[in-house]
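Fig. S4 source data, part A: sequence.
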Amino acid sequence: MNRMIAIAAVLIALGGAGYWWVSQPDAGSGMAAQAQTVSDTPDAASEFGITEMTIGDPAATLEVIEYASYTCPHCATAHANLLPQLKANYVDTGKIRFTYREVYFDKYGMWASLVARCGGPEKFFGISDLIYKGQAEWSRAGGDGAIAEELRKIGRLAGIDADQLEACLTDGEKLEKLVSWYQANATAHGIDSTPSFVIDGKKYANMSYADFAAILDEKLAE
């Protein structure tokens, strides 16, 4: 957990390829009080000025939260194999609401997050799908400039124009808020690996769809 928080502690400086990422082991200390007070309420994200990315019936009594990183291969696998079944059988049927929260291991995951959020909630999950599907290509494109350009291509493919993309990728204030929000959530839920899932307030590690469905069915029957 300390490693994840330290890695995600960020200072932001503008660069030609977006943001230059700097790891600071103690940079998160000023956010400690916030991390202790975050809660799973509709107002928690607003404390940091962040929009929760949620799909499903808002009135569903059961919430599933996924913590994942756009640069995590296991997250890409879960996104391809687990989530489509979860969406079809539980989200689209109104049984649960599903929230996706980014985890930041590195600067490239942060850049991907800024691109994914650039189109707002309406495009977020579609862009996330493109990012995960292309993870093996864009994340290995080469240096910072090449990776940033591959992410821009994904944004343009989703219908975001170049000026809007640059505004998103150079929004230092937004990135600082996202990192603070991530740190608070990760601390509150004890997130130490990705993907991790919080089901009805309890944390679970990555699992098969069959195991996931069994947990959901048990909780829905309560």
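Fig. S4 source data, part B ends here. Residues 2-221 form a domain with the Glutaredoxin fold (CATH 3.40.30.10).
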